[in-house]
Amino acid sequence: MAKGTNDAQLLIQSLRKAYAATPTTLKIIDLYVVYAVATALIQVAYMAIVGSFPFNSFLSGVLSCVGTAVLAVCLRIQVNKDNKEFKDLPPERAFADFVLCNLVLHLVIMNFLG
């Protein structure tokens, strides 16, 4: 059992070391993704405890959080300098795409609310 624990500690240390080299902008986007997913999980837990009487509201809230997290992951992929696929895309354009897609997402969600 000690070997398995040692392997897990080595894995965690190597991941921590690799993440320390990540640029600050990507870390901020990662925090935003974690916040959006945590908000969705809190809404699901609240629905499980209290109930889902206005089901459209519950779906809108969760889909808003999940959709925003997905768009933020797409932004992270586009802004990452190590990604060769989007090397010609300036970060300002990627952020403008993120804002525009978020606007469309939330307009659809507001329409779904009724």
Short key terms for the protein model shown above:
mainly alpha; flat; transmembrane helix; 114 residues; single chain; transmembrane; DAD/Ost2
Topology:
Blueprint: H1 2-20, H2 24-50, H3 55-79, H4 91-113
Proportion in β-strands: under 5%
Mean pLDDT: 91
Helix content range of the residues, please? over 70%
Q: Give the overall shape.
A: flat
Order of helix and strand elements from N to C terminus: HHHH
Number of strands: 0
Number of helical segments with 4 or more residues: 4
Summing up helix and strand content along with how strands pair, one would put the structural category as: mainly alpha
Distance between the termini: 56 Å
Low-confidence stretches: none
Main sheet, how many strands, which sense, barrel? none
| Spatial extent as radius of gyration | 18 Å
Pathway: Protein modification; protein glycosylation
Subunit structure: Component of the oligosaccharyltransferase (OST) complex.
Protein name: Dolichyl-diphosphooligosaccharide--protein glycosyltransferase subunit DAD1
Family: Belongs to the DAD/OST2 family.
Structure in words:
It is a multi-pass membrane protein. Pathway: Protein modification; protein glycosylation. This is Dolichyl-diphosphooligosaccharide--protein glycosyltransferase subunit DAD1. Keywords: Apoptosis, Endoplasmic reticulum, Membrane, Transmembrane, Transmembrane helix. It comes from Rhynchospora tenuis. The chain has about 110 residues and is mainly alpha-helical. It is about 80% helix and about 0% strand. The protein has helices at about 1-20, 25-50, 55-80, 90-114. Helix 2 (about 25-50) runs antiparallel to helix 3 and helix 3 (about 55-80) runs antiparallel to helix 4. The longest helix is centred in the N-terminal third of the chain and has 27 residues, at about 25-50. It starts with a helix and ends with a helix. The relative contact order is 0.11. The model has no long low-confidence stretch (mean pLDDT about 90).
